[in-house]
Amino acid sequence: MLWQTQQIDNVKLSLIFLLLLVVPVVFASCSGNQIDINSASAEELDKIIWVGPATATKIINARMFESVDELIEVSGIGEVKLADIKEQGLACVSEEDEEKEDKESGEEEKDNDKIKKIVYEVEEKFENLEEEVQEEAVVIQLNAQTIKSEENKKVLDKGKYARYGFVVFCALLVFLFVIKARKNKNEFRD
């Protein structure tokens, strides 16, 4: 019983830790020394590594970018060059439209509400599971005669709750990573 309670507590702590890592959202914005790829001139874009006059023209023609990662779509910029550009830290995408920011913050709030609801449901399930484990905890005394009895088999089958909790936890992890991946797809973080 003690190990099951500890296991449930460990899962709760893992869930809380995961939420602290996943939930915060940071928007990329340009600082004073960075170059906004959506508004910079060809001469300014030329200061970015791997960007010459021809590539600067291609970037200008391909505008509006939601993140620096979208530069991969510009002809002549591959994964290696994009990695170098991001490492240089000079290119950025600023949020120009207040309406766009309001829309994104509204979407974030909806996502955060969904996450909070899922966390609440998972915590509630773990609390119910913990109560069931405490109510049904039985001291099992095993000896040669009782090891294979049907009564002990039923008691030992109750250990499946830990597996169910683990499955719920994994499903929550997958859901949170999908949300995070969707957000990271459209943003660049320093």
Please, how many helices? 7
CA distance, first residue to last residue? 46 Å
**Element string (H = helix, E = strand):** HEHHHEHHH
- Sheet bearing the most strands, described? 2 strands, parallel
Overall 3D shape: elongated
Q: Give the low-confidence spans.
A: 18-28
Tell me the count of domains. Answer: 2
What would you report as the Rg, rounded to the nearest angstrom?
26 Å
Describe the protein in words:
- This protein has 190 residues and is mainly α.
- The chain has 2 domains: 2-27 and 97-185, no CATH class; 35-92, Orthogonal Bundle (DNA polymerase, domain 1), CATH 1.10.150.320.
- It is 62% helix and 2% strand.
- It has helices at residues 2-22, 42-45, 53-61, 79-88, 98-136, 150-157, 160-185; strands spanning 35-36, 91-92.
- Strands 1-2 form a two-stranded parallel ribbon.
- The longest helix is centred in the middle third of the chain and has 39 residues, at 98-136.
- The two termini are 46 Å apart.
- Residues 18-28 have low confidence and may be disordered.
